[in-house]
Amino acid sequence: MSSQRSTSSNKITDDELNGLILRLQTLLPQLDQSRHGRVSAAKVLNEICSYIRRLQNEVDGLSGRLSQCLDSMDLTGFDAEIVRDLLQQ
Amino acid sequence: MMNTPQQVKNPTSSLKSRFITRFLGALTKINAEDPISSPSPTRIFQRYRRIKVASNKSMAYSVRSRRIWSRAMLSRFRSRRSAFSGRRSSVKTTNCTTINVTINENKTAKGGLDMQTDELRELVPGGEAMDVCNLLDETAHYIKCLTTQVQVMRKIVDFCHLSK
């Protein structure tokens, strides 16, 4: 995916900005476009920030849970099975 | 027009498989280095921190240097390891800085957006040095990677409980 945007000038156009904001909106399940239509850029960014924080906290929480149950399982034993199952998603 | 993550399977699944391989390898190592017999609260806490680092590191390494955020995260890990100050080292931003001069003119015109991106810059690794375009682009990728991390870690936790 290219991160090169405007090639003709260095200024970002409104269209490009809106396109990027719109793409971020599609990542937010709570701001589903079919129901909410166009949402303000500020709101999208606000929700995006909350979403990132939530995800980072989830990684944190899951790390904690793994630290507690890790000792009770032999990872090398079913490595291959886990990988296959996870990849099937 | 960007496809939603659900439609574009191929790039995501190869990133996902790289992450899985690395992360499971890291977990195996952590598991091997820790005595199973004495899970004291201190050891569990240390293990939690190691797992968290392993998760973020595995993802950053799986993305390699193809993204500004992953490069920023990897250089942060490296500078931590070499015992220098823990502050975010500035990623190669020569390209960004020249663009920034022009972008700032646009930024002041969009005053509200500027304030909103400030918060985002703190959340996305390397965000403070990015121009708005890159920031929004990197954010989208960073979120996809975070959701992959969470998804995989959840499955591993489920397996943990199933195997008990």
Automatic annotation (TrEMBL), chain A:
One BP term from GO: regulation of growth
Primary location class: nucleus
Molecular function per GO: protein dimerization activity
Chain ranges of the BHLH domain: 1-55
PROSITE patterns recorded: BHLH
Xref: Gene3D superfamilies: Helix-loop-helix DNA-binding domain (4.10.280.10)
SUPFAM superfamilies: HLH, helix-loop-helix DNA-binding domain
This protein's GO CC annotations: nucleus
Keywords: Growth regulation, Nucleus, Transcription, Transcription regulation
PANTHER family: DNA BINDING PROTEIN
Name listed for the protein in its UniProt record: BHLH domain-containing protein
UniProtKB/TrEMBL annotation, chain B:
GO CC terms in record: nucleus
Keywords recorded for this protein, A-Z: Nucleus, Transcription, Transcription regulation
Residue span, IBH1-like N-terminal domain: 13-80
GO MF annotations, alphabetized: protein dimerization activity; transcription cis-regulatory region binding
Main subcellular location: nucleus
Pfam families given in the database record: IBH1_N
InterPro entries assigned to the protein according to its UniProt record, in alphabetical order: bHLH_AtIBH1-like, HLH_DNA-bd_sf, IBH1-like, IBH1_N
UniProt-annotated location(s): Nucleus
One of the GO BP terms on file: regulation of DNA-templated transcription
PANTHER family in the cross-refs: TRANSCRIPTION FACTOR IBH1, TRANSCRIPTION FACTOR IBH1-LIKE 1
Protein name: IBH1-like N-terminal domain-containing protein
Lineage of origin: Eukaryota, Viridiplantae, Streptophyta, Embryophyta, Tracheophyta
